[in-house]
């Protein structure tokens, strides 16, 4: 079985995940819920999906498996992942989201939710153990097409109501905002939300074929599109998300994407948060901003959420988390005006987009002016696709084997000053720039992150890092 849990959820080729594998893991999840007292016999499990071609088949198989296991599937249709989590939390229901997020259409995934929150890494291990135990059980592997009562409208309206209470009425009046719709399940909701705040909205680039959009490594084609749109339509911003709507993409008035960790910083200041959990890949300049405590984690929402829980247990107030991809998680409730924005410990794309645009509009600044005002180091990232998992494992073993191996690999890039091994290898060079090599946790990709004082230096460093990865060959 080639599917496995990555940084967040079960991932694999669509051909491997569809059929008996999705039935098996849905059955294992049902057994887990019942065994942990997270669902009662006959209890509801909310199910949603993204728009990739394989998702409807997987959803049908999952719903049939849940029903056989003694639970009641609730069909929420194609909605954003945070909308599913919010609806499940309100109704005390666990959830399953069928999505491959930003990865190509020939791959897919399943995310599992406790009522209103992501499962933990410990939960993943328990579900995997149950799946292994059930692997020879004919009933657990049975492929049938199931269905459930349709709650898509109710889940949609609940999520819209949450996001229509973030900013004051008319807060974005006068702004011209493009919504890059592509194939994200958030596309229609985003139009409604930004129109609600008075913006003139331009739906753009809608596609009925699935387009993978990675908000952490935005493609050159996407950047060109956004630059053309902002120029032709005199836009103040372009807003989009990845496929399942849990990671934001916000471009400024020139069509240049804003870093996801900058969006997280904007949300931190907007909400007045006091404790921030974020992976080691987020901008190192966050600590210098002041006004909030920063807790660094490994990459992946489960690790960020675990750090938020530790902060809450220690008595911290105003706890949030975000990733370099922009996904924002609320560990505690926040008061905004006269309303309360309740905790939602899963990635959300709407709140960070609203926070940065609301902040810029209130200050009378463009998005580029707001970003410049924070004076963060220039941080860039990209990835090499089709970088076999076996190759990335061999590379990391080689680099960790000795200081000579690492310094030899990095020699064409610079001299090593310090190394962090929290998640991948994050190397501070002698000029205090940073380069970070990390295998993807859910796809055959190798990622490279860099920080430098200016854009040109960052671009040059990223190019050198990607070249070093591309040129490396395992020693036989």
Care to describe what's here?
With 476 residues, the chain is α/β, with parallel strands linked by helices. It has helices at 14-17, 20-35, 55-68, 81-90, 121-134, 152-163, 187-196, 220-233, 260-271, 286-289, 301-313, 350-363, 367-373, 389-401, 403-410, 455-471, and strands spanning 4-5, 10-13, 44-49, 72-75, 94-98, 107-114, 117-118, 149-150, 176-180, 200-204, 237-241, 248-251, 275-279, 293-297, 319-322, 328-330, 334-336, 339-341, 344-348, 378-384, 416-420, 425-429, 434-439, 446-452. Strands 1, 2, 3, 4, 5, 6, 7 and 8 form an eight-stranded mixed sheet that branches. It has a five-stranded mixed sheet with strand order 14-13-15-16-19, sandwiched between helices. A hairpin with a 6-residue loop joins β23 (434-439) and β24 (446-452). The protein is globular, with a radius of gyration of 22 Å. The model has no long low-confidence stretch (mean pLDDT 94).
């Amino acid at each position: 079985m080639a599917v496995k849990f990555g940084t967040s959820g079960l991932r694999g080729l669509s051909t491997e995940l569809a059929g008996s594998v999705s039935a098996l893991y849905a059955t294992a999840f049902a057994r887990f819920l019942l065994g942990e007292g997270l669902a009662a016999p006959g209890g509801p499990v909310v199910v949603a999906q993204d728009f990739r071609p394989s998702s409807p088949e997987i959803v049908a198989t999952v719903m049939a498996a849940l029903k056989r296991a003694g639970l009641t599937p609730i069909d929420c249709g194609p909605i954003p992942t945070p909308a599913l989590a919010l609806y499940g939390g309100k109704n005390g229901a666990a959830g399953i989201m069928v999505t491959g997020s930003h990865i190509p259409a020939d791959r897919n995934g399943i995310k599992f939710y406790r009522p209103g929150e992501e499962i933990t890494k410990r939960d993943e291990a328990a579900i995997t153990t149950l799946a292994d135990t059930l692997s020879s059980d004919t009933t657990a592997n049975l492929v049938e097409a199931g269905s459930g009562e349709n709650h898509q409208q109710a889940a949609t309206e609940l999520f819209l109501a949450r996001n229509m209470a973030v900013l004051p009425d008319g807060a974005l009046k006068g702004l011209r905002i493009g919504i890059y719709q592509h194939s994200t399940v958030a596309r229609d909701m985003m139009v409604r939300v930004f129109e609600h705040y008075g913006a003139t909205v331009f739906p753009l680039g809608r596609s009925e074929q699935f387009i993978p959009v990675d908000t952490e490594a935005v493609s050159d084609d996407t950047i060109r599109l956004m630059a053309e749109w902002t120029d032709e339509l005199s836009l103040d911003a372009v807003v989009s998300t990845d496929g399942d709507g849990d990671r934001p993409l916000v471009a400024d008035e020139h069509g240049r994407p804003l870093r996801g960790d900058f969006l997280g910083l904007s949300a931190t200041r907007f909400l007045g948060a006091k404790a921030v959990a974020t992976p080691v890949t987020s901008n190192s300049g966050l600590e210098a901003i002041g006004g909030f405590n920063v807790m660094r984690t490994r990459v992946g929402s489960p690790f960020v959420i675990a750090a938020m829980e530790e902060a809450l247990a220690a008595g911290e107030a105003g706890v949030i988390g975000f990733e370099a991809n922009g996904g924002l998680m609320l560990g505690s409730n926040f008061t905004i005006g006269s309303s309360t924005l309740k905790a939602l410990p899963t990635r959300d794309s709407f709140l960070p987009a609203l926070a940065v645009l609301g902040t810029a509009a209130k200050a009378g600044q463009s998005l580029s002016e707001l970003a410049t005002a924070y004076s963060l180091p220039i941080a860039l990232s990209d990835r090499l696709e089709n970088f076999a998992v076996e190759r990335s494992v061999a590379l990391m073993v080689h680099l960790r084997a000795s200081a000579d191996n690492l310094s030899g690999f990095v020699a064409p890039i610079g001299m090593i000053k310090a190394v962090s091994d929290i998640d991948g290898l994050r190397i501070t060079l002698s000029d205090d720039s940073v380069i970070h090599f990390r295998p993807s946790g859910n796809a055959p990709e190798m990622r490279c992150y860099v920080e430098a004082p200016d854009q040109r230096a960052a671009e040059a460093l990223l190019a050198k890092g990607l070249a070093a990865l591309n040129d490396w060959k395992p020693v036989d």
